[in-house]
From TrEMBL:
<dbReference type="GO" id="GO:0048046">
    <property type="term" value="C:apoplast"/>
</dbReference>
<keyword id="KW-1133">Transmembrane helix</keyword>
<dbReference type="GO" id="GO:0004784">
    <property type="term" value="F:superoxide dismutase activity"/>
</dbReference>
<keyword id="KW-0964">Secreted</keyword>
<comment type="similarity">
    <text>Belongs to the germin family.</text>
</comment>
<protein>
    <recommendedName>
        <fullName>Germin-like protein</fullName>
    </recommendedName>
</protein>
<dbReference type="InterPro" id="IPR014710">
    <property type="entry name" value="RmlC-like_jellyroll"/>
</dbReference>
<keyword id="KW-0862">Zinc</keyword>
<feature type="domain" description="GRF-type">
    <location>
        <begin position="197"/>
        <end position="240"/>
    </location>
</feature>
<keyword id="KW-0863">Zinc-finger</keyword>
<feature type="binding site">
    <location>
        <position position="73"/>
    </location>
    <ligand>
        <name>oxalate</name>
    </ligand>
</feature>
<dbReference type="Pfam" id="PF06839">
    <property type="entry name" value="Zn_ribbon_GRF"/>
</dbReference>
<comment type="function">
    <text>May interact with bacterial adhesins thereby protecting the reproductive tissues from microbial attack. Has no oxalate oxidase activity.</text>
</comment>
<dbReference type="GO" id="GO:0030145">
    <property type="term" value="F:manganese ion binding"/>
</dbReference>
<comment type="subunit">
    <text>Monomer. In the absence of manganese, it forms tetrameric and pentameric forms which show superoxide dismutase activity.</text>
</comment>
<dbReference type="GO" id="GO:0009506">
    <property type="term" value="C:plasmodesma"/>
</dbReference>
<feature type="binding site">
    <location>
        <position position="68"/>
    </location>
    <ligand>
        <name>Mn(2+)</name>
    </ligand>
</feature>
Length: 296
């Protein structure tokens, strides 16, 4: 069977994924983060033979040498400048410096890498001709395999001593065990909570196209905007589990990231401005009523 067994029933959500819209944090060991959208996350890709990923890079961030056993990769630079390359079976390095808008191909199964040598962040989109391309990172594959690759093999392959093999293995295992590195080399995806609108329906997740908040995710009532029964539910979606900010509870505010805190402050200020306008209006109305009463 090519792929998984087909589902008995399906919905539009099986063909939808919003996880590539927002840059992910790159404050980890390697300074990069991969967000993969494959058949595991988009069931509608089953048997279609395609998938896609977003990679974010901090300045100096690297996507370590790795291979995709089941797919060729088309690599498109969204932002910044990246030095990339792959190694042929004849052990020839094929390097290239890519800028925003450039496209590069990493042939199926060949070891390749990307590094951000620029001063600013970078991002790229990778498209694969497999619904589940898989990934094999070279350093952990060699030095953290279970059972362990024999020291005699690694010592002979790299022409180093057994002690040096042990030192490298221990170091790689230490780095691999850190949560900061795991988020770099593994394909992770943002998790989005299911929200229920005031109609009692599952809220729809959308991408903002406004000039003030381009690319931000938000929830709203799934009913058509022209529907008279639409409840008007609307909430920002935050990448840290999509937690909704509560400006009245200090601990929750402290738990949010900087963007969420800014949003809390913006919401609070907007509410205060609205309250001030209402108070001013009521005060003015009361003054007018008082003056009319005096004139009578």
């Amino acid at each position: 069977m090519n792929g998984f067994a087909c589902k008995a029933s399906f919905s539009a959500s099986d063909f939808f994924f919003a996880g590539l819209a927002t840059p992910q944090p790159t404050n980890n060991t390697m300074g990069s983060y991969v967000t993969l959208a494959n058949v595991m996350l988009i069931p509608g890709l089953n048997t279609l033979g395609v998938s896609i990923a977003r990679i974010d890079y901090a300045p100096g961030g690297i996507r370590t040498p790795h291979t995709h056993p089941r797919a060729t990769e088309i690599f498109f630079v969204l932002q910044g400048e990246l030095d990339v390359g792959f190694i042929t079976t004849a052990e020839v390095l094929v390097p290239m410096t890519l800028k925003q808008g450039d496209v590069f191909i990493f042939p199926k199964g060949l070891v390749h890498f990307q590094i951000n040598n620029g001063k600013g962040p970078a991002a790229a989109i990778a498209v694969f001709n497999s619904q589940n391309p898989s990934v094999q990172d070279i350093p952990p594959t060699l030095f953290t395999a279970t059972p362990q690759v024999p020291n005699s093999v690694l010592s002979k392959a790299f022409q180093i001593s057994y002690q040096e093999v042990d030192a490298i293995s221990n170091y790689v295992k230490t780095v691999m065990s850190s949560s900061s590195h795991r988020s770099t080399i593994q394909y992770r995806q943002p998790t989005f909570e299911n929200k229920t609108c005031w109609c009692g329906l599952r809220a729809a997740l959308h991408i903002s196209e406004s000039s003030e908040n381009p690319g931000r995710l938000f929830y709203r009532c799934p009913k058509d905007s022209k529907d008279k029964e639409i409840c008007g539910y609307w909430k920002w979606c935050y990448q840290i589990g999509c937690h909704e900010p509560n400006p009245r509870v200090a601990p929750e505010v402290k738990a949010l990231n900087n963007d969420a805190r800014v949003e809390v402050i913006e919401v609070t200020v907007a509410n205060l401005k609205h309250m001030l306008i209402v108070c001013q209006f009521l005060s003015g109305l009361a003054l007018v009523v008082a003056i009319i009463a005096l004139l009578k």
